[in-house]
Amino acid sequence: MSIPIKNSHGIAKMREACAIAATILEQLKPLVRPGVTTQDLEEAGRDWMARLGARSACFGYHHGSRRYPAHTCISVNDEVVHGIPSLRRVLREGDIVSLDIVVWKDGYVGDNAFTVPVGPVSAPVEKLLRVSREALVLGIKQAQIGNRIGDISSTIQQYVEANGFSVVRDMVGHGVGLSMHEPPEIPNFGKPRTGDKIKPGMTLAIEPMVNAGAYKTKTLSDGWTVVTADGSPSAHFEHTVLTTDRGPEILTIPRPVAESVSK
Ligand code: MF3
Ligand code: CO
Predict the structure, then answer these.
(1) Is 73 near ligand 1, meaning CB less than 6 Å away?
(2) pLDDT tens for each residue of 130-143
(3) Ligand nearest 204 Cα, by number?
(4) Is the whole model's pTM more than 0.90, yes or no?
(5) Is the C-beta atom of 79 inside 6 A of ligand 1?
(6) What residue owns the CA closest to ligand 1's atom 7?
(7) Closest residue (by CA) to atom 10 of ligand 1?
(8) How many A from CA of 4 to the centre of ligand 2?
Protein backbone atom coordinates (compact mmCIF):
# COMPACT_ATOMS: atom_id res chain seq x y z
CA MET A 1 0.00 0.00 0.00
CA SER A 2 1.32 3.41 -0.87
CA ILE A 3 2.02 6.15 1.63
CA PRO A 4 -0.75 8.80 1.75
CA ILE A 5 0.33 12.31 0.75
CA LYS A 6 -1.62 15.12 2.41
CA ASN A 7 -2.73 18.15 0.42
CA SER A 8 -2.93 21.61 1.97
CA HIS A 9 -6.39 20.90 3.39
CA GLY A 10 -5.22 17.66 5.00
CA ILE A 11 -2.11 19.36 6.33
CA ALA A 12 -4.18 22.12 7.94
CA LYS A 13 -6.36 19.49 9.60
CA MET A 14 -3.31 17.55 10.75
CA ARG A 15 -1.83 20.71 12.26
CA GLU A 16 -4.96 21.15 14.32
CA ALA A 17 -5.24 17.52 15.48
CA CYS A 18 -1.54 17.42 16.33
CA ALA A 19 -1.53 20.74 18.20
CA ILE A 20 -4.42 19.47 20.32
CA ALA A 21 -2.71 16.15 21.05
CA ALA A 22 0.46 18.02 22.06
CA THR A 23 -1.38 20.55 24.20
CA ILE A 24 -3.08 17.75 26.15
CA LEU A 25 0.21 15.94 26.67
CA GLU A 26 1.80 19.16 27.92
CA GLN A 27 -1.08 19.79 30.33
CA LEU A 28 -0.67 16.33 31.85
CA LYS A 29 3.04 16.72 32.56
CA PRO A 30 2.77 18.85 35.74
CA LEU A 31 0.17 16.43 37.15
CA VAL A 32 2.75 13.62 37.28
CA ARG A 33 3.68 13.60 40.97
CA PRO A 34 4.05 11.07 43.78
CA GLY A 35 0.66 9.93 45.11
CA VAL A 36 -1.19 10.55 41.84
CA THR A 37 -2.85 7.50 40.24
CA THR A 38 -2.70 6.75 36.53
CA GLN A 39 -6.51 7.00 36.62
CA ASP A 40 -6.13 10.64 37.74
CA LEU A 41 -4.04 11.27 34.61
CA GLU A 42 -6.62 9.46 32.46
CA GLU A 43 -9.42 11.67 33.79
CA ALA A 44 -7.41 14.84 33.24
CA GLY A 45 -6.59 13.70 29.70
CA ARG A 46 -10.22 12.86 28.96
CA ASP A 47 -11.35 16.26 30.29
CA TRP A 48 -8.80 18.10 28.14
CA MET A 49 -9.97 16.21 25.06
CA ALA A 50 -13.52 17.39 25.72
CA ARG A 51 -12.38 20.94 26.40
CA LEU A 52 -10.36 21.11 23.17
CA GLY A 53 -13.12 19.55 21.07
CA ALA A 54 -11.26 16.32 20.29
CA ARG A 55 -11.96 12.61 20.73
CA SER A 56 -9.63 9.89 21.95
CA ALA A 57 -8.37 7.69 19.12
CA CYS A 58 -7.48 5.02 21.70
CA PHE A 59 -10.88 4.61 23.38
CA GLY A 60 -12.63 1.67 21.75
CA TYR A 61 -9.66 0.98 19.47
CA HIS A 62 -9.90 -2.63 18.20
CA HIS A 63 -7.15 -5.16 18.52
CA GLY A 64 -8.53 -8.55 17.56
CA SER A 65 -11.74 -8.82 19.55
CA ARG A 66 -10.62 -6.44 22.27
CA ARG A 67 -11.42 -2.77 22.60
CA TYR A 68 -9.07 -0.44 24.42
CA PRO A 69 -10.96 0.72 27.53
CA ALA A 70 -9.43 4.16 28.23
CA HIS A 71 -8.82 7.53 26.60
CA THR A 72 -5.10 7.63 27.28
CA CYS A 73 -2.24 5.13 27.45
CA ILE A 74 -0.18 5.44 30.62
CA SER A 75 2.76 3.10 31.06
CA VAL A 76 4.89 3.00 34.22
CA ASN A 77 8.52 1.78 34.57
CA ASP A 78 8.80 -1.62 32.80
CA GLU A 79 5.56 -0.96 30.92
CA VAL A 80 6.55 -0.04 27.36
CA VAL A 81 3.24 1.14 25.84
CA HIS A 82 -0.54 0.70 26.05
CA GLY A 83 -0.69 0.73 29.85
CA ILE A 84 -4.32 0.93 30.97
CA PRO A 85 -4.89 3.66 33.54
CA SER A 86 -5.93 2.32 36.95
CA LEU A 87 -6.99 3.63 40.35
CA ARG A 88 -4.69 1.05 41.88
CA ARG A 89 -1.56 2.34 40.15
CA VAL A 90 -0.16 4.99 42.47
CA LEU A 91 2.94 6.84 41.26
CA ARG A 92 6.00 6.85 43.52
CA GLU A 93 9.11 8.99 43.49
CA GLY A 94 11.67 7.41 41.17
CA ASP A 95 9.07 5.99 38.76
CA ILE A 96 8.95 6.96 35.10
CA VAL A 97 5.64 7.43 33.32
CA SER A 98 5.03 7.25 29.57
CA LEU A 99 2.00 9.26 28.48
CA ASP A 100 0.64 8.55 24.99
CA ILE A 101 -2.07 10.85 23.65
CA VAL A 102 -3.76 10.16 20.33
CA VAL A 103 -6.79 12.24 19.28
CA TRP A 104 -9.27 12.62 16.46
CA LYS A 105 -10.15 16.13 15.38
CA ASP A 106 -12.27 16.76 12.27
CA GLY A 107 -11.48 13.34 10.80
CA TYR A 108 -7.70 13.53 11.34
CA VAL A 109 -5.45 11.96 13.97
CA GLY A 110 -2.59 13.51 15.94
CA ASP A 111 -0.29 11.19 17.91
CA ASN A 112 2.40 11.98 20.45
CA ALA A 113 4.01 10.64 23.61
CA PHE A 114 6.73 11.28 26.13
CA THR A 115 8.12 9.78 29.30
CA VAL A 116 8.42 11.87 32.44
CA PRO A 117 10.17 11.16 35.74
CA VAL A 118 8.23 11.21 39.02
CA GLY A 119 10.50 13.42 41.11
CA PRO A 120 14.20 12.55 41.01
CA VAL A 121 15.09 9.27 39.29
CA SER A 122 18.30 7.21 39.34
CA ALA A 123 21.17 8.27 37.06
CA PRO A 124 20.74 5.27 34.71
CA VAL A 125 17.04 6.00 34.32
CA GLU A 126 17.79 9.66 33.71
CA LYS A 127 20.16 8.56 30.95
CA LEU A 128 17.46 6.29 29.50
CA LEU A 129 15.11 9.27 29.20
CA ARG A 130 17.76 11.52 27.68
CA VAL A 131 18.96 8.98 25.13
CA SER A 132 15.40 8.10 24.09
CA ARG A 133 14.47 11.79 23.68
CA GLU A 134 17.63 12.43 21.68
CA ALA A 135 16.99 9.33 19.53
CA LEU A 136 13.64 10.81 18.54
CA VAL A 137 15.27 14.12 17.57
CA LEU A 138 17.93 12.34 15.50
CA GLY A 139 15.30 10.16 13.82
CA ILE A 140 13.19 13.20 12.95
CA LYS A 141 16.22 14.88 11.38
CA GLN A 142 16.41 11.97 8.92
CA ALA A 143 12.86 12.61 7.67
CA GLN A 144 14.23 14.51 4.67
CA ILE A 145 12.97 14.37 1.11
CA GLY A 146 15.05 11.82 -0.83
CA ASN A 147 15.95 9.85 2.30
CA ARG A 148 14.27 6.53 2.98
CA ILE A 149 12.33 5.26 6.01
CA GLY A 150 15.30 3.01 6.84
CA ASP A 151 17.41 6.12 7.39
CA ILE A 152 15.13 7.10 10.26
CA SER A 153 15.07 3.55 11.62
CA SER A 154 18.80 2.91 11.48
CA THR A 155 19.71 6.29 12.96
CA ILE A 156 17.50 5.65 15.98
CA GLN A 157 18.79 2.12 16.45
CA GLN A 158 22.45 3.06 16.17
CA TYR A 159 22.19 5.91 18.65
CA VAL A 160 20.23 3.87 21.20
CA GLU A 161 22.51 0.83 20.99
CA ALA A 162 25.67 2.94 21.08
CA ASN A 163 24.41 4.15 24.45
CA GLY A 164 23.93 0.62 25.78
CA PHE A 165 20.14 0.40 25.49
CA SER A 166 17.89 -1.53 23.10
CA VAL A 167 15.06 -0.63 20.72
CA VAL A 168 11.75 -2.47 20.94
CA ARG A 169 11.08 -4.63 17.85
CA ASP A 170 7.48 -5.67 18.49
CA MET A 171 5.96 -2.23 17.89
CA VAL A 172 6.88 0.38 15.32
CA GLY A 173 6.21 3.98 14.34
CA HIS A 174 3.75 4.61 11.54
CA GLY A 175 2.14 6.98 9.11
CA VAL A 176 -0.80 8.82 10.68
CA GLY A 177 -3.61 10.94 9.29
CA LEU A 178 -7.06 9.72 8.28
CA SER A 179 -6.52 6.86 10.71
CA MET A 180 -4.16 6.20 13.61
CA HIS A 181 -2.06 3.74 11.62
CA GLU A 182 -1.37 4.37 7.93
CA PRO A 183 1.54 3.17 5.82
CA PRO A 184 4.47 3.20 6.18
CA GLU A 185 5.64 1.26 9.19
CA ILE A 186 8.58 3.05 10.78
CA PRO A 187 10.61 0.54 12.79
CA ASN A 188 13.14 1.82 15.30
CA PHE A 189 15.69 -0.58 13.83
CA GLY A 190 16.85 -1.27 10.30
CA LYS A 191 19.34 -0.46 7.59
CA PRO A 192 20.16 2.87 5.98
CA ARG A 193 19.02 3.46 2.36
CA THR A 194 16.23 0.86 2.63
CA GLY A 195 12.45 1.16 2.65
CA ASP A 196 10.12 3.71 1.09
CA LYS A 197 11.41 7.01 -0.21
CA ILE A 198 10.34 10.07 1.75
CA LYS A 199 8.31 12.58 -0.25
CA PRO A 200 6.73 15.92 0.67
CA GLY A 201 3.35 15.82 2.41
CA MET A 202 3.80 12.66 4.46
CA THR A 203 2.71 12.73 8.10
CA LEU A 204 4.78 10.30 10.12
CA ALA A 205 4.55 9.26 13.76
CA ILE A 206 8.15 8.61 14.72
CA GLU A 207 8.34 6.90 18.09
CA PRO A 208 11.39 5.22 19.58
CA MET A 209 10.49 2.78 22.39
CA VAL A 210 13.71 2.15 24.26
CA ASN A 211 14.44 -0.49 26.89
CA ALA A 212 17.22 -0.18 29.46
CA GLY A 213 17.73 -3.95 29.15
CA ALA A 214 16.92 -6.34 26.31
CA TYR A 215 14.51 -5.54 23.50
CA LYS A 216 12.08 -8.41 24.12
CA THR A 217 8.58 -7.55 25.32
CA LYS A 218 5.48 -9.43 26.40
CA THR A 219 1.82 -8.48 26.73
CA LEU A 220 0.09 -8.77 30.10
CA SER A 221 -3.13 -10.79 30.58
CA ASP A 222 -5.19 -7.59 30.26
CA GLY A 223 -4.48 -7.97 26.53
CA TRP A 224 -2.96 -4.49 26.17
CA THR A 225 -0.14 -3.59 28.53
CA VAL A 226 3.20 -4.29 26.86
CA VAL A 227 6.08 -4.77 29.32
CA THR A 228 9.76 -5.52 28.96
CA ALA A 229 10.40 -9.27 29.22
CA ASP A 230 13.33 -8.68 31.60
CA GLY A 231 11.55 -6.16 33.83
CA SER A 232 13.90 -3.32 32.87
CA PRO A 233 12.50 0.22 32.58
CA SER A 234 11.37 1.50 29.18
CA ALA A 235 10.91 4.98 27.68
CA HIS A 236 8.81 6.24 24.77
CA PHE A 237 9.04 9.54 22.89
CA GLU A 238 6.86 10.31 19.88
CA HIS A 239 6.07 13.19 17.55
CA THR A 240 3.93 13.45 14.45
CA VAL A 241 6.09 15.02 11.75
CA LEU A 242 5.23 16.57 8.36
CA THR A 243 7.78 16.06 5.59
CA THR A 244 8.46 19.15 3.46
CA ASP A 245 10.98 20.45 0.92
CA ARG A 246 12.32 22.58 3.74
CA GLY A 247 12.87 19.54 5.95
CA PRO A 248 10.82 17.84 8.65
CA GLU A 249 8.31 19.89 10.61
CA ILE A 250 7.11 18.66 14.02
CA LEU A 251 3.32 19.07 14.12
CA THR A 252 2.83 17.98 17.72
CA ILE A 253 3.78 21.29 19.31
CA PRO A 254 1.62 22.45 22.24
CA ARG A 255 -0.28 25.72 22.15
CA PRO A 256 -0.95 28.05 25.04
CA VAL A 257 -4.31 26.81 26.32
CA ALA A 258 -5.93 30.24 26.43
CA GLU A 259 -5.76 30.19 22.61
CA SER A 260 -7.20 26.71 22.22
CA VAL A 261 -10.08 26.48 24.68
CA SER A 262 -13.22 27.15 22.73
CA LYS A 263 -16.09 28.25 24.90
N1 MF3 B 1 0.28 5.59 19.98
C2 MF3 B 1 -0.26 4.27 20.19
C3 MF3 B 1 -0.07 3.45 18.93
O4 MF3 B 1 0.28 4.02 17.92
C5 MF3 B 1 -1.66 4.41 20.62
C6 MF3 B 1 -2.42 3.15 20.75
S7 MF3 B 1 -3.97 3.43 21.38
C8 MF3 B 1 -4.48 1.87 21.83
O9 MF3 B 1 -0.19 2.24 18.91
F10 MF3 B 1 -5.75 1.91 21.79
F11 MF3 B 1 -4.02 0.94 21.04
F12 MF3 B 1 -4.04 1.65 23.02
CO1 CO C 1 1.94 6.15 17.57
Answers:
(1) yes
(2) 999 999 999 999 99
(3) 2
(4) yes
(5) no
(6) 58
(7) 58
(8) 16
What structural domains and CATH numbers belong to the chain?
A: 8-262 (3.90.230.10)
From the centroid of its chain, how far is CA 217?
A: 17
CB 21 within 8 A of CB 200: no
CA atoms within 13 A on the CB side of 52: 30
Q: Which residues of the chain have pLDDT under 50?
A: none
Residue-level pLDDT at 1: 80
C-alpha of residue 172 to centroid of ligand 2, in Å: 8
Q: What is the pLDDT of residues 40-74, one digit of tens each?
A: 999 999 999 999 999 999 999 998 899 999 999 99
d(CA 52, CA 260): 7
- Report the pLDDT value the prediction gives residue 12, as an integer from 0 to 100: 98
CA of 205 to the centre of ligand 2 (A): 6
